[in-house]
Amino acid sequence: MKKSEVPQDKSNLESANFKELCYAVDEEGNYITENSSGWDPKTIALNNAIEEIKERVAEAKKRVLNNETSPIEYYMELHKMDLPILASYVGLWQWRVKRHFKPKVFKKLSKNLLQKYANVFDVSVEQLQDITKEI
Amino acid sequence: MKIDFTHHQSAHCENGVVSNLLKHKGHQISEPMVFGIGSGLFFVYIPFLKVNHAPVVSFRPMPGIIFKRFAKRVGIKIKRFKFRNENNAEKALEAELQRKNPVGLQVGVYHLTYFPDEYRFHFNAHNLVVYGKEEDTYLISDPVMETTTILTKKELNRVRFAKGAMAPKGHMYYPVEFPEELKLESAIKKGIKTVCRDMLAPVPYVGVRGMRTIAKLIRKWPKKKGIKVANHYLGQLVRMQEEIGTGGGGFRFIYGAFLQEAAVILNNPKLKELSLEITDIGDSWRDFAVNASRIYKNRSSELDAYNKVADQLVDISNREEVFFKKLKKAI
Questions:
Q1: Touching check for A22 and chain B: CB below 8 Å?
Q2: In angstroms, what CA-CA distances link B312 with B49, B162, B233, B281, B291?
Q3: Which of A25, A58, A87, B130 is most exposed, with minimal Cβ within 10 Å?
Q4: Coil, strand, or helix at residue B246?
Q5: Between chains, do A80 and B120 touch, taking CB under 8 Å as contact?
Q6: How far apart are CA B245 and CA B144, in angstroms?
Q7: Nearest to B167 among A16, A22, A88 (CB)
Q8: Is ipTM beyond 0.85?
Q9: Distance of CA B209 to the CA centre of its chain
Q10: What's the CA gap between B23 and B240, in Å, rounded?
Q11: Is the pTM of this model over 0.90?
Q12: Tell me: the pLDDT tens digits for B249-276?
């Protein structure tokens, strides 16, 4: 990549006001570094991934409201987690977390466990129990 | 308490932290030199592992290995600590800062507050340097950022004890012993040999053969998985290549920069020629990303488009095979 080809596309980096460093060659073929404000193919790939997550969150929300799953699954998706990640954050076996996805089981969870989940998701127990109270 | 530490931005976190820590100790070692000696170029497809609901393709070796190999090859001793307890981790970090010693940390990205939201995923092998503390705020030199930044005590503890795959467990490290002179010549040769060995490995999941395996899969994805999933997989591939810990194209350019530096140190003009060749290959990786992103942007359902990017990948793998064979001979 030549120095002049280092992409200067608009990207999500703008919001944090920083540019990333790229290695490129100058006219004589010597390597130099140059900052890039972003590159469209990367931005598209990232936005695609974000869209995907949003869909998963919306889907989970619907299922919580239909009483098909517990709010834990919704918050898990919201925090871009999957089962192994969530299980390690709360320090439980994966099968236990999965069991807590069942609305019936969730309703009987102890205060202690609820608080554990609430801490991981950075919400109050009240918000954990009722996702419509999410800010 | 603030250590007089100079922040240099880098393209990749692990190389950047190593290079910055060494520069602080008076050894002018560039980011590409760390990358090259640590054999940072790699390709692996891990069929049984999924991240973010897509198969894992990595363009780099396991996190931490670049540093480990680099240190061993140039003769530097590093001290490393992991902790079970947040308090102990914090105390150990502070004791080092008191000794005016900047410290490298492995952290999780998800809770890094200074990153844009969109970039915060559960990736636990990011690296940064802590170079001071003012009241309850740590002074941070994150090599991928343009300038230094800060994290509160609570924030730093949270990223040091992120959970999930490759959990950092408070991992902190710093160089303790340097030889009188860093033995670059032999280290460079070792670094190059390892990359050639790995990229030419006779295994279908690693190196140029791994790329061919992925190319085959790309052709099958739309039929086998449906367009939506195929597009998600392809998008994830481009992200691993270009964004998550940088990768494919970018790594080829860093490697090109390394070969140019190595050509001077080893007085070997052949390496300069090869640097131009890997630069060209890096450009092809970028073309691949452009074409792949076009497919999922337009939600294209032509099978032909998938075959085309797969062909492109096979072409790249052929050129890299030739390249690494030449590189092996050149040293």
A1: yes
A2: 25, 38, 17, 11, 9
A3: A58
A4: coil
A5: yes
A6: 10
A7: A88
A8: yes
A9: 20
A10: 29
A11: yes
A12: 789 999 999 999 999 999 999 999 999 9
